[in-house]
Design the sequence.
């Protein structure tokens, strides 16, 4: 749209974490934004998310720091427990530590609460639901998203924020399948009072209400943490599995299956499992990092560009960082939006590729006996995309 005074129009496909953050950030910078979501209503499935200091800075820059603090929980300590007898591996302080070291805290939230936080600052007519996108293409100085109902949306830029099985990605770069990572993950939420306070040899392992804790076993690892106001405990149980047989990448599971998969594990974990109600399992998929996410005026972000294993808990963090950076880069290049998209990919590709590859490495490390200490995420947390 070079040379024109018209407000640039951005069409975003997918109202997930990355798409909504991009919408909020772009609107704040004066762009006209429309989000197209295939689901009939806006909402997020129930599960917890870990938010690093790198992500906190994005919320701060968007003026949503107070809202994030109110929606998220800061854990007391990080406790690692032996998978079989429940003995303590290590305990390290959490609360206040990240703030002192990185200038921003490490928080834990329910995905739905973050989703609501973004939605609440967008006008109702900004997001159009029941719009299944089937592809997008560049047409000269504009771009067009095409939908299954036969309609099209024209804009100056189309952003494909449509997740790991992105239709826009397939259209731009060819239909391939994401790689099954050999990880299956169960996720459930239980009341915080399920947490046993003392267990292990001579009841020497103690947990405080508000701790983040986990077990690392021979064939998987389990992480539990309080979310929101601290009254709910999020459970993530990642298991090594040779194949994913479900048609869908997420499927309902049962408490019985969860318990059976962890036969022989520490009784404190099994006690928590006995309180599980609804539980889902995911086949975890990723892709090799690709160098290019853009074709003309169409670009990918979030999982559509760089699906990542959850072992460093950074997939949504990276999608939200992307959403902030694309707005900054397009704003800086308002007269040449294609150059803005190029600058966006150049800034984001190396960082997200490193996260994807280190997440795989962490998964491999988790399978070693004995497992090494976790890979340091300091380089991720130190980075400030808002600077
Ligand atoms: C088990 C598990 C645990 C995880 N834990 C963490 C964690 O603790 N911390 C973290 O940072 N990350 C975590 N992640 C990763 C995180 O969930 C993703 O990286 C993140 O959701 C990606 O955001 P996104 O906006 O790119 O895509 P999504 O959140 O997948 O959103 C894509 C949106 O696009 C819509 N859509 C899809 N196709 C179309 C279409 N054709 N037309 C229109 N709309 C469409 C979808 O309905 C959806 O609303 C975890 C992932 C898994 C599987």
Sequence:
């Amino acid at each position: 749209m070079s040379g024109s005074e018209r407000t640039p129009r951005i069409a975003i496909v997918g109202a997930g974490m990355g798409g909504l953050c991009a919408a909020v950030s772009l609107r704040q910078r004066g762009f006209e934004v429309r989000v197209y979501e295939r689901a009939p209503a806006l909402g997020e499935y129930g599960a917890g998310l870990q938010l690093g200091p790198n992500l906190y800075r994005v919320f701060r820059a968007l003026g949503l720091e107070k809202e994030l603090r109110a929606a998220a929980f800061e854990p007391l300590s990080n406790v690692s427990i032996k998978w079989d007898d429940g003995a303590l591996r290590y305990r390290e302080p959490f609360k206040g530590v990240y703030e002192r070291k990185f200038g921003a805290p490490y928080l834990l939230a329910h995905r739905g609460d973050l989703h609501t936080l973004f939605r609440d600052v967008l006008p109702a007519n900004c997001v159009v639901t029941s719009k299944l996108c089937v592809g997008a293409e560049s047409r000269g100085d504009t771009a067009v998203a095409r939908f299954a109902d036969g309609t099209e949306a024209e804009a100056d830029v189309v952003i494909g924020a449509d997740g790991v099985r992105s239709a826009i990605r397939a259209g731009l770069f060819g239909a391939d399948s994401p790689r099954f990572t050999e990880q299956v993950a169960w996720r459930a939420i239980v009341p915080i009072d399920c947490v046993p306070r003392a267990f292990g040899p001579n009841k020497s392992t103690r947990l405080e209400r508000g701790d983040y804790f986990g077990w690392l076993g021979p064939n998987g690892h389990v992480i539990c943490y309080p979310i929101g106001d601290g009254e709910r405990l999020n459970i993530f149980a990642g298991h090594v599995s040779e194949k994913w047989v479900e048609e869908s990448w997420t499927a309902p599971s049962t408490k019985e299956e969860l318990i059976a998969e962890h036969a022989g594990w520490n009784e404190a974990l099994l006690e928590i499992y006995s309180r599980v109600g609804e539980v889902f399992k995911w086949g975890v998929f990723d892709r090799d990092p690709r160098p290019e996410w853009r074709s003309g005026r169409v670009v990918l972000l979030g999982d559509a560009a760089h699906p990542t294993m959850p072992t460093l808990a950074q997939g949504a963090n990276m999608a939200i960082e992307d959403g902030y950076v694309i707005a900054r880069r397009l704003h800086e290049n308002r007269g040449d939006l294609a150059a803005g998209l190029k600058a966006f990919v150049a800034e984001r590709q190396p960082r997200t590729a490193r996260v994807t590859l280190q997440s795989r490495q962490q998964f491999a490390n988790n399978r070693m006996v004995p497992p090494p200490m976790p890979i340091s995420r300091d380089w991720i947390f130190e980075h400030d995309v808002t600077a």
User: Anything to note?
Assistant: The chain is about 30% helix and 30% strand.
